[in-house]
Amino acid sequence: MTESRELGASGLATPPLVLGGNVFGWTIDKGESFRILDRFAEAGGVMIDTADAYSAWVPGNKGGESETIIGEWLEQSGKRDKVLIATKVGMLPGEGGEKLAPTRIAAAAEASLARLGVDTIDLYFAHQDDESVPQEEYLAAFATLIKAGKIRALGASNFHAARLKSALDIAADTGLPHIRVLQPEYNLVSRHKFEGELQDLCITHNVGVIPYYGLASGFLTGKYRTEADYGKSVRGGRMAAFLEGKGKAVLAAMDQVAAETGATLAQIALAWLAAQPGVTAPIASATSVEQLDELVGAWDVKLSPEQLALLTDAGA
Fold first, then answer.
1. For 247-279, what is each residue's pLDDT tens digit?
2. 157 and 212 in contact (C-beta within 8 Å)?
3. Which of 4, 45, 122, 203 has an alpha carbon within 20 to 30 A of 86's alpha carbon?
4. What would the mean pLDDT of 74-96 be, rounded to a whole number?
5. Given CA atoms 124, 26, 189, 311 in this order, what sign does their dihedral have?
């Protein structure tokens, strides 16, 4: 089993892959979700990432479906003490108000705890920033949850560098909770949202980083190489932007590294991410046990400095 990595100063640790729960109750049913979760735990996987918003975009769903499936799996498997659960608040309005209103945070946390069937959420993310609420107010709401033992560590997703810095400064000045983990969009073909100021800030302040869209919605698996491939999945429509940009050059570099290493393109994409400064573990989701096994195999892929440079330059 691969070694775990410390997740910034959160007190949590994970091997270099976090399992994405966005597909549970969306593109796969409960039975297949359980099989993937079982295999992930058997392989030594630790952190499972979900959100109260998953999967509200599906007709007939209202959000919370992924958390419910994970909660049922935790109860059936008895593996609560073997895994870490990360979930989020801030995308959906609901009881208590909008986004990161303190009353909304309190109500959403209780709802997530109930769906997950746990006493404590290991890592609770602000799913997006909410500039309508003073940062002191929502940090205080998270502080209340930490003090009550309902969450262990605080994270932020989709925060810009200036807002993450101000939250960190407020925490340092007031004793309110520090954001310990960042979840940004980051992959070989989408780098501008993280690289630079935000990445430097995370390194300086020891904020752990678990990027989402590690496989660029499947583009970096190599199955979307022409317009004719867009119909291969429900995410196919997103691929045009990648192909029209740096995508073809990145795929060519990945093909070269695959030939040299014997690794799959998905494994190469995740191994590149895991090797980037400040990154603890990429997030990736699987829709089958076979796909999960491939993703976990990325733990054992060690790219040379030359291979890392080739991939980095292709997407620059």
1. 999 999 999 999 999 999 999 999 999 999 999
2. yes
3. 203
4. 97
5. positive
- Residues 132-171 have pLDDT tens digits of 999 999 999 999 999 999 999 999 999 999 999 999 999 9
Closest CA to 69 of 37, 45, 97, 42: 37
Q: What is the pLDDT of residues 19-31, one digit of tens each?
A: 999 999 999 999 9
Question: Which pLDDT value is given to residue 299?
Answer: 94
d(CA 85, CA 12): 11
Judge whether 94 and 64 are in contact, CB under 8 Å: no
Rounded (5°) CA angle 65-294-28: 25
Catalytic residue, from 54, 138, 186, 212: name it. 54
**Cα–Cα distance for residue pair 216/222, rounded to 1 Å:** 11
Q: Are 73 and 33 in contact (CB under 8 A)?
A: yes
CA distances from 280 to 11, 27, 79, 151, 198 (A): 13, 27, 23, 20, 15
| Residue 169: both structure tokens together | 């400064």
Closest by CA to 14, choosing from 207, 185, 208, 190, is: 208
Q: What span, in angstroms and rounded, lies between the C-alpha atoms of 67 and 123?
A: 14
- Dmax (CA) for the chain in angstroms is 55
Worst-scoring range by mean pLDDT, 34-43, 176-185, 218-227, 257-266? 218-227
